[in-house]
Structure formats: structure tokens, C-alpha cells
Amino acid sequence: MGLLEGKIALITGAGGGIGKGVARRFAREGAAVVVAEIDVASGEQVVCELEELGGRALFVRTDVTSKESVVAAVNAAASHFGGLDILVNNAFVPSPNVRMEDKTDEMLERTLKSTVWASWWAMQAALPHMKLRGGGKVVNFYSIDVDTGAWLHADYNTAKAGILGLTRSAAAEWGRFNITVNAIAPTAMGATFHKLAAENPGFAEASAALRPLGRSGDPEADIAPAVLFLASELSCYMTGEAIHVDGGLHLPGYNSRPRDVPVREY
């Protein structure tokens, strides 16, 4: 018996990176997994991988910037598998890495939609299904970028700070339904990491060196177990928490100021 035997989970952005790693780990632990992903090819490929692992899986094309699409994915999960126990809000739509003064309203709006709004929509849609199951688990994704005020991510930082507020508000209010709501702040070798590593020689080594553990995280081996913990009964007495899963990077933090930006500009 796996830790998630008989459970039904929906993971947004499960077509790659951390989302895929979590989906694979959940399948190994006995969960039926809904891969809520906008990219059809990657979403269907992950479903095939989960089935090869012996799991049950369903791909639902999901655009997290659309309320209709997010709600439809939640309802499809409940309809196909008979309920919903676990919701993992992982997906987001990245915006251009530019300074705050160059961020546009449209960038902020799109980032908020794919993070705060997407999580809000999914959580509200999941609530009645979880209540019918006698409780549930919600895992949201926070970021160390909020803590460090990461440069070029002003819209992302704003949105992720909102995720923390949403997580704690839902934890406080939904405990009466036996629903726990927690967040993780992960760093891992996802698609963005590999792109930066390919474009910048030495990036991977420098990134690993920043962490007390001396290595960068693997989505399935390092990040997924923490999500599994929060999605299982092992964390039954924990709610409203935000956990760093980053090899200790949050201890020293990091300086993200671009090299071409002067200390003072007038």
C-alpha cells in the first residue's frame, strides 16, 4: 500500500518539471493522477509514463489563465475518478525578465491569473468535492524569490506573495472541513534551469554551490517527496505552513541584481 492508495489528485502544470516529478511520485504511491496541462503532447506523454508505472491517469488540457478551463479540469477529475482528494497548484505562466519599471500591467495581470487566480479558482472548485470525501489536501507553490525580492520578477514576486496569503487564509477557514492547505517554495532542475544551464556555461555549477547541500534539486527525487508528505496523512496535523525545499538556499539567499545595473541611478 502506497501513501496515497485510493486517493485522487489533480496537478496543474504536470507536463514537465516539478509537476511531472510530483505526478510520477504520486502514481508510485497509488494515487490516480489528473495531469492538468496546457501542452497536449507533454501532457499525454506524462499520462503514458504514469500508466507504465502501473498508475491510473487522465490528461485534461488546462489553461490556468482561464477560470472556465481550471474549473472544468477539477470537475473532470471528479467525474472521471469519482472524487478529488488532493490539489497541487503548480502551474504558472512566466513573463519577460525585465526591471519593475518596465513590467506592464498586462504582464502582472497574466501572472496573477496563472498563479493567484488559478489557485483560487481550483481551490473553490475542489472544495465541494473534497467535502464529499470527508476532507482533502491542497498544496500551493510559493517561492524564495519573494523572500529575496528577486530582480526582474516583480510581477511573479507579487503573485507568489499572494499565494502565501491565500494558503494561510484557506488553512484557517477550511480546517473545519478537514482540509489542510500548505505551500512549498521549491527550487529544482526544471525546464528553466536546463535552459539557463545551456545558455550560460558554469550556471549549473554555480547554482549548486549556492546551496548548503551543494547540489541542485531533482524534481522527482528531491521535490516530490515534500509534496507527497503534504498530500498524505503524514502531515495530518499541519496546515498553513510554507516549507522551503531548496537544498538550504533560503539560508544564505542570493543576490539577483543584474551586473549592468548601477548601485545608484539619478
**Which geometry do the CA atoms define?**
globular
Within CATH, the superfamily carries the name NAD(P)-binding Rossmann-like Domain
Helix segment tally: 9
Quantity of strands, as a count: 7
- Average pLDDT over all residues: 96
Widest β-sheet, arrangement of strands? 3-2-1-4-5-6-7
Structural class: alpha/beta
* Estimated share of beta-strand residues: 5-15%
Question: Segments where pLDDT lies below 50 for 5+ residues?
Answer: none
Sketch the topology as an H/E string, one letter per element: EHEHEHEHEHHEHHHE
Cα-based radius of gyration, to the nearest Å: 18 Å
Helix content estimate: 40-55%
Oligomer: single chain
Organism: Zoogloea dura
InterPro entries: NAD(P)-bd_dom_sf (IPR036291), Sc_DH/Rdtase_CS (IPR020904), SDR_fam (IPR002347)
Protein name: SDR family oxidoreductase
Keywords: Oxidoreductase
Describe the structure.
This protein has a seven-stranded parallel β-sheet with strand order 3-2-1-4-5-6-7, sandwiched between helices. Helix content is 46%, strand content 15%. Helix 3 runs parallel beside helix 4. The protein is α/β, with parallel strands linked by helices and 266 residues long. The protein is built from nine helices and seven strands. Strand 4, helix 4 (105-132) and strand 5 form a beta-alpha-beta unit. The chain has one domain: NAD(P)-binding Rossmann-like Domain (Rossmann fold, 3-Layer(aba) Sandwich). It holds the Pfam family adh_short_C2. Belongs to the short-chain dehydrogenases/reductases (SDR) family. GO terms for molecular function: oxidoreductase activity. This is SDR family oxidoreductase.
